[in-house]
Amino acid sequence: MNYHYKKNLDHNIFRGYDIRGVYPTNLDEDTAYTVGLGFGTHIKRMGKRICVVGHDNRLSSPSLYNAVVLGIKDTGIDVITLGLCTTPMYYYACIKLNVPSGIMVTASHNPKEDNGFKFAFDEKGNCKGQEIQDFYQELVKGDFEKGEAKVYYYDIEREYLDLFKESLSFGKRRLKVVLDPANGAAASFCRKVYEQFPMDLIIINEESDGSFPNHHPDPCVEANLEQLKKKVIEEKADVGISFDGDGDRLGVVTHRGQFIPTDIYMIIIIRDLIDKVDNKTFLYDVKCSKTLSDEIERLGARGICYRTGNSYTKAKVRDDDMPFGGELSGHVYFRDRWPGFDSGMYAGLRLLEIMSYTNKDINQLLNGLNEYYSTEELKFVSTDDKKFGVVDKVKEYCDQKNYSYLDIDGVRVNFDDGWALVRCSNTGPNITARFEAKTEERLQELQEEFTSKIKEYNI
User: Fold this and answer.
1) Count of structural domains, the chain
2) Structural domain boundaries enclosing 278
3) Does residue 94 contact residue 52 with C-beta atoms inside 8 Å?
4) Residue 107: pLDDT band by 50, 70, 90 thresholds?
5) Catalytic residue (choose from 60, 61, 63, 108)
6) Which is catalytic among the residues 42, 249, 318, 331?
7) Of 155, 171, 194, which residue is a domain's last?
8) Residue 429 — pLDDT band, cuts 50, 70, 90?
9) Mean pLDDT to the nearest integer, 312-329
């Protein structure tokens, strides 16, 4: 097919952690070809000669993948293509092949109409923040390299399966497990991964279908796990695990059909790790419950509260050489015996590994926690032009009230009996908020106070 340079790109698709838009409204094959031209040019001028490209199973992914590969090739950069894979498989291919430059065609957990590109120029990892805005300017400028190049296919699946076997060792307890890959990219691989370990396995929504016919592919929104909950209870399973559209995040359900948020899942992991690692420093993002930070402190460890965003949190865990970290959205990073990238399948298996050495269920593994009342992450529709100003005004309001706050990512306002978080979404035209407090009454007060301000400033 013939693709063309597209100068009039929609600036709004260049977001905080990646490029993401609606196909084919503001992101199409010409967009992908243009991204390929810009990416190939950028890494060629860095002295690179080759990159890696993979794609998830969204309906638009194969055509966007072909276009971005051709764009890169036309700049004289060789391309190693992976075909259909999960984002973690793409990460591992970059490590295994020692080629840190690459693009993954995916819109992660976004609706089926969306698509996009996660990309890395070098060893620093996925581009983020200003890097993405600078890249947009390069694309608009249109000064691209030209050259001849080759395209190679590489099958990473066998090596990826072996990585799991090398990184895990199960105990004697045989668990009954229900998986829900949500018809996403993980649907093509999760059975092969999990059947390598001793368990009784049941999988729902296993057909690879980028239209996501059964539910939205975001496992950290409890409403998307209703099928999984019912199946776990019906099968009398020990645990249920779900993955997102590109397989880099997880959601967990107990044997009682109870949803376990990622920050609470992290407590099980940290309790297991605490006596096995030298660096007892763990990262969590601003959305996480005080239950987690309380437990880290109780264990005699150090917690670092950091900004939200997979590109930011993963880089921070790596740069500070932490053994483990994660964020509420379901991204978690193991660096004790795993290469540090986020994989929903591996995160699920680490939980199962812990359970295989004990007769305790998930609830028992979570005994003794401080409890708080909290909201889910709340979304307020705004515009990409307006949302940052709204958060700035919330910050000004906190200054006027002499509130204590952390502003590493939006505004997290800390009180003795709770906290409020107001921040801009980096993946859509939304303002997000979350609230937590020691009592339901205080939770209601905080939510009403800051929700009213968001609505007032968002007019």
Assistant:
1) 3
2) 160-365
3) yes
4) very high
5) 108
6) 331
7) 155
8) confident
9) 96
